[in-house]
Amino acid sequence: VQLMESGGGLVQAGGSLKLSCTASGSDFSILYMGWYRHTPGKRREFLASITTGGMTKYADSVKGRFTISRDNAKRTMDLQMNSLKPEDTAAYYCVSSFIRATQDLEWQDWGQGTQVTVSS
Fold first, then answer.
1. Which of 13, 51, 73, 94 could form a disulfide with 55 if both were Cys (CB 3.0 to 4.6 A apart)?
2. Mind giving me the DSSP string for 21-66?
3. Residue 51 to residues 4, 77, 82: CA-CA distances in angstroms?
4. With the C-alpha atoms ordered 43, 48, 49, 55, is the resulting torsion angle positive or negative?
5. What is the pLDDT of residue 60?
6. How far is the C-alpha of 10 from the C-alpha of 69, rounded, in Å?
7. Cα–Cα distance between 106 and 112 in angstroms, integer?
8. Of 84, 82, 87, which is closest to residue 68 (Cα–Cα)?
9. First and final C-alpha spacing in the chain
10. Rg of the Cα trace of the chain?
């Protein structure tokens, strides 16, 4: 599965951004999808996931601020990020799996990442 993120950029604290992920190479509707982020010097961080049926899960750090969604017809997954904080600055990665991944290593495919920078 090939994953391509888009939508990153520079935003002021308190602002919003929407990231998108497009998948190719497989039937999108059977993929479990998710988002991670990574900041140099820190461990990569799980943010959110969405099952084939649309059930969602969020990390406590983004719950209430970020919303994950998917459109199987368009083969896309989005991450709407609101109330952004400087500590949200990171490279954001789209991930996918044919199984319901619960650990980092279970996600089978990763995108190249898109940078999000939140200025204070």
1. 51
2. EEEESS-GGG-EEEEEEE-TTS--EEEEEE-TT--EEE-TTTTTTE
3. 19, 11, 22
4. positive
5. 97
6. 22
7. 17
8. 82
9. 36
10. 13
CB atoms within 10 A of CB 73: 8
Q: Could you identify the residue written with the tokens 């991450």?
A: 79
pLDDT on residue 13: 98
Size of the chain in residues: 120
pLDDT in tens, 48-63: 999 999 999 999 999 9
Q: What does the pLDDT look like over 67-108, one tens digit per residue? A: 999 999 999 999 999 999 999 999 999 999 999 888 888 999
SS3 content of the chain, % helix, strand, coil (to 5): 10, 50, 40
